[in-house]
Amino acid sequence: MVVILHRQHSESSTGAAVDLDGDGVLATWEREYHLTPIYLDAMASVLAAHGVEVLRCEGRPYSTWHEWACQEAAARPGVPVAYCAAHLNSVPGGQSLSWMFYDRRSHGGQRLAEHITETMTEAGFCTRAPAAAYDDRTDSDAPWLYNPLYTIRGIYSGPANLSGVCLEPDTVQHLATLGSQQAITRRLAHLGAVMAHGVLEWLRERAG
Ligand SMILES: [Zn+2]
User: Fold this and answer.
1) pLDDT tens-digit profile of 81-135?
2) How confident is the model at residue 208 (pLDDT cuts 50, 70, 90)?
3) Total domain count for the chain?
4) What are phi and psi of 34, to 5 degrees?
């Protein structure tokens, strides 16, 4: 069983950012690109402890990493491979919100998103139902679902043992309510451990 963890955004385009500790300075650690590795490290630890092979990559272009993920999955026929695109959401208001996105075409991706959401709900996190991302510029409801699709869209063309999910386990505005960098780090590590157990459920289901 294999899990590919992709730290998305990049050094030059760091994603969502807020002044998490309220000191009036937007520091490097307060940017999405520098926060997601905290939960990714926790995911990797839990997965490795359960005998899962963990592959990691970071940055852009996403399409290149999607091709690489497809090749890695093709090199392991019949072995379930989960690809996780790592993000944090930006939603004004400061509420806690976990949200998983999958490619509307992908049944495996849907199951992966469902397992992670279920595990997070059981752990007491505030979750939304998994959302099917798709690209239909004629649908006025759809534009907001294009961004999450972009994070995983090259995965669907890969082999059948590969499925992808876009992780949005919390909002940066909620992290800002936690009070300290230490509390934020603890929260992100907890989120990562719980998401890893959801991924494990999916891997076991796929492995039959
Ligand atoms: Zn992002």
Assistant:
1) 999 999 999 999 999 999 999 999 999 999 999 999 999 999 999 999 999 998 8
2) confident
3) 1
4) -100, -5
Model-level pTM?
Answer: 0.96
CA of 179 from ligand 1 middle (Å) equals 22
C-alpha 77 – ligand 1 centre gap (Å):
31
Instruction: Give the C-alpha separation, 141 to 162, whole Å.
Output: 28
Joined together, the tokens standing for residue 44 give: 């990797």
User: CA dist 5 to 30, 37, 69, Å?
Assistant: 21, 10, 10
Cα separation of 106 and 97, whole Å? Answer: 23
| Cα–Cα distance for residue pair 52/69, rounded to 1 Å | 16
- Residue 36 lies in domain: 2-207
Q: Is 24 exposed, middle or buried (0-12, 13-18, 19+ CB in 10 A)?
A: exposed
What kind and span of H or E run contains 76? none
Residue-level pLDDT at 80: 98
Output the CA 32–ligand 1 centroid distance in Å. Answer: 7
